Amino acid sequence: MNKLDTNTVKEIQMDILSSVDTFCKENNIRYFIGGGTLIGAVRHKGYIPWDDDIDIMMLRKDYNKFVHDFGTKGKYCVLAPELNMHYPFPFAKVEDTSTVLIENMTTPWKMGINIDVFPIETIPENQKDRDKLFMKAKRIYKLYSFKKSNFPRHGWLIRLSAKVLHAFLKLFSISTLNRWTINNATKYQGTSSSLCGCVVWGYGKKEVHPVSDLASSIDMPFENRIFQGPIGYDSYLRALYGDYMQLPPKEKQVTHHDYMAFSK
After folding, report:
1. Between the CA of residue 105 and those of 102, 145, 227, what are the distances in Å?
2. Hey, where are the domains in the chain?
3. Is 180 helix (H, G, I), strand (E, B) or coil?
4. Per-residue confidence at 108, pLDDT binned at 50, 70, 90?
5. Which are the contacts of 193, defined by CB distance < 8 A and separation ≥ 6?
6. Which stretches of the chain are DSSP H helices?
7. Is the pTM of this model over 0.85?
8. Could you tell me which residues come within 8 angstroms of residue 100 by beta carbon, excluding any fewer than 6 positions away?
9. What per-residue string of b and e applies to 88-112 under the rule 16 or more CB within 10 Å gives b?
10. How far, CA to CA in Å, does 100 sit from each of 134, 191, 263?
11. Alpha-carbon separation of residue 75 from 57, 164, 182 (angstroms)
């Protein structure tokens, strides 16, 4: 296998995104670039200079259609808990099967260079219901974190505690955690609400947005190509990041991902 540099990884991610964009337009599926990818589009017209991944989001009904209909398009393939019970995340990815991505995590799942696809759920307007929804999501997320980490940079007592916890967590498979997460996230699907957001992953209560923010899409330039962003991108980004146009301090301008990528 040949090791790939960051620029090549980004080129492959861009080609995956272009394939998803084409498929969604041909099949009347609405998607939006989101998270750091959306900041990059607005602030840099492309990747945040120190970032190295791509996030998109879809309303749950579009997400379900995409996951079940995209299948395999040439070397691109959807990975999702709805399709494989051993897949280790409660959201989908689209991978390039001609590549290998080795991430610094304990999950044995093998995948190629990919982009993330997050479902957007109906979120209740009632504050107590909303708090319960995100509190449960947070508790399950902690189980994911404990299951995937050996805490290598911590002291021996924490590492020993982690080993004991891992033994206990073997009682709960990844598919069980995914099922709990998705059942919790979709609890209010089909109900009437003026709020929506990502529940399966992300920033917790900051993920709550007015439905109007994602009511339609607009063209947004990203790395000399055009993709779909949410009409309420400013409101969406401010809820998640505050003054997103302000660059973070130099010491925080670093990637949060630890991986190596190879071509097969």
Report:
1. 9, 10, 31
2. 2-263
3. helix
4. low
5. 122, 123, 124, 125, 211
6. 6-26, 35-39, 60-70, 127-148, 156-169, 174-185, 233-241
7. yes
8. 1, 110, 112, 261, 262, 263, 264
9. bbbbbbbbbbebbbeeeeeeeeebb
10. 34, 41, 6
11. 22, 40, 28
Both tokens of 54, joined, read: 């791509």
Residue 62's alpha-carbon distances to 53, 119, 139, 238, in angstroms, are 22, 8, 27, 25
pLDDT confidence bin for 144, thresholds 50/70/90: confident
For the record, the structure tokens of 218 come out as: 């607009």
Instruction: Give the Å distances, CA to CA, from 206 to 71, 138, 151, 195.
Output: 32, 13, 27, 12
The predicted model gives 100-106 an average pLDDT of 76
| Residue 230 DSSP SS3 | strand
Amino acid type, 76 = Y
| Encoded tokens for 78 | 């959807």
Q: Which amino acid is at 246?
A: Q
Q: In sequence order, what are the residues at sequence separation of 6 or more whose Cβ sits closer than 8 angstroms to the Cβ of residue 117?
A: 20, 31, 56, 57, 58, 63, 66, 67, 78, 80, 91, 92, 93, 94
Q: Which residues neighbour 215 within 8 Å (Cβ) at sequence distance 6 or greater? A: 231, 232
Coil, helix or strand at residue 101: strand
